[in-house]
Design goal:
The protein is mostly helical. 67% of the residues lie in helices and 0% in strands.
Length: 206
């Protein structure tokens, strides 16, 4: 399952422009897209595509992530700790969505959320690089999947596979948090906020 999800994320990241939705106006150029960020681009796409399906929305996220990551390259120079922290955060992100998918017994909602998260991570990378030398506030801690979903043993899905996924997520979480503490406080807060916001989401269980 992990390999399948990671493959899906990679393929999404390599989405070509022809996979994007058809828009009723010209697509924004690269400077405009970067200024809009992923949230703004998503809103724009909703307004200007007649019927954007889930696969096209995934492609949009992958297309944006590629543009943003390319723009991030100069910002990451001389910041190897941030490069490593982003690798570890991205690895945890994949484990988290894999575990969530298994926990909920499948469902396209969670697979699509995982694919689209690559765009948000690309924005997080940019924000952290910009905040590298800036002061930061309190660093959120976040929670492992087992901490946030204490009743996961009660689900009816394949318990053995789910237990393995939960264990992998816990290890990835610890590795990501260990990388975060090596960052300057400004960059650390940016990455930790994403980690906490994502890991503490109840995903429709309230």
């Amino acid at each position: 399952m992990t390999k399948l999800l990671l493959s899906g994320l990679v393929l999404t990241g390599l989405a070509l422009a022809q996979d994007l939705p058809k828009f009723d106006v010209a697509r924004p150029d690269t400077p405009q897209v970067l200024k809009m960020r992923y949230t703004g681009l998503s809103r724009w796409a909703d307004e200007h595509s007649q019927a954007m399906n889930e696969a096209e929305a995934d492609a949009l996220a992958g297309w944006y992530a590629g543009i943003r990551r390319e723009a991030n390259r100069p910002l990451l120079k001389d910041k190897p700790a941030l490069v490593q922290a982003m690798k570890d955060l991205s690895a945890w992100n994949s484990c988290y969505y894999e575990t969530l998918y298994l926990y909920k017994g499948g469902g396209t909602l969670y697979s699509h959320a995982g694919k689209r998260s690559v765009a948000s991570l690309a924005d997080v990378e940019a924000d952290a690089a910009i905040a590298w030398s800036q002061p930061g506030g309190k660093t959120p801690r976040g929670r492992t999947f087992a901490q946030q979903h204490p009743d996961w043993l009660k689900v009816e899905q394949d318990q053995a596979e789910l237990k393995k996924a939960v264990a992998r997520e816990g290890v990835a979480f610890q590795k990501a948090t260990a990388s975060l503490v090596k960052l300057p406080i400004g960059a650390r807060e940016v990455l930790a906020t994403y980690l906490a916001t994502t890991s503490e989401g109840r995903w429709g269980e309230n």
